[in-house]
């Protein structure tokens, strides 16, 4: 037997709780805006994005640029950001600093970022942003986009109908060389070695020497192979860039000596792969690996240094990669 | 969430077929991190993280992750339990190491000021900056 007043009071309380809940989930309070990429607003993306889950399992949305001339909604070349609303508690400065040191978190977020960028790249031209670019709210993100409209629009135009491919060249593990290396000297190369059964010590020394020579022969191929690969790949690419070789105790004794990315027109992708494959066939002792197609991460910034319009500080310029148009 | 993520590597655009002579494995974590951490457009967001920390981290990552995927396939996941490689399992060993490196930096700079063994002090003054570029344009509303 509750008094009507009491009932009303409780309902009011429930309302307040519900409201607090909403506030907690509101973008400006509990959430911040994580940006994956810049795209052309006209790209047919909304359906694709609706099916995606991004960083922190969040929905993925399009955020059109604000400001500029009028509402600009019909303007061709209008840009948009691909964004998610993510919990502030996981993406504010302190959390990011902590989380970046957690390899499991880093892998999860890096893969989610990569998956969203890849899904968008499948539908149109995309400028991928570096992982963990975060804004306080949609307005601020939209303004950041509008301020750089010209730079981004130019770059998007240059990247249209292109994809990035990685080419890596590695030396095989030491133990794998002697099996396949050509020109390993035989006993016949040793004076008096023919027709005589070698003693165990002598055989051991021969084997060691053969292995060493085979290894040296493979190492000697690395330079010419890298040059031939670079030349063949660049012939079919609009731009290319060299990355630092990947070195890792986990990757075993094989040693990455060339790690490059190529911006390849879609129409030439097959020719690019074929050209690289032909070079790889000439160097059977070396490991040639092609990765991709990637969204053009390595080519998102214009090739000739930082664009004067692109930034207002060293933070925005990023490291200038050694890159040339091919 | 057992539903597979659309846009996984396997469903990346069919603009070109898979490499006929590539390993056929999904993109390695090293390849992905190399791109999402090192490449892509850099625009300053509202929330910034200390670049020095990240720099130290990525140097470690370069050493560590070149083929984490392959290692995982082989059942090697020791780094997930190695306190020096995962803050998740042991507080933050990396933070401790960063502190240690900063302490060494401070010592070096101190040595330089006091004139002790200045010949090896190769660090830029800026490299010792720890908190100066940490800030957040927090406009709580």
Automatic annotation (TrEMBL), chain B:
Coiled-coil parts of chain = none
Cytoplasm: present as a keyword of the record?
Answer: no
Any matching Pfam family: Gas_vesicle
Primary place of residence?
other
Keyword annotations for this protein, in alphabetical order, are: Gas vesicle
**Entry's localization field:** Gas vesicle
Which residue ranges run through the membrane?
A: none
The UniProt entry, under InterPro entries, shows: Gas-vesicle_GvpA-like (IPR000638), GvpA (IPR050530), GvpA-like_CS (IPR018493)
Region (Disordered) residue ranges read: 1-23, 119-141
Q: Does the keyword Magnesium apply?
A: no
The UniProt entry's sequence similarity note says: Belongs to the gas vesicle GvpA family.
Q: What is this protein called?
A: Gas vesicle protein
Organism name:
Streptomyces omiyaensis
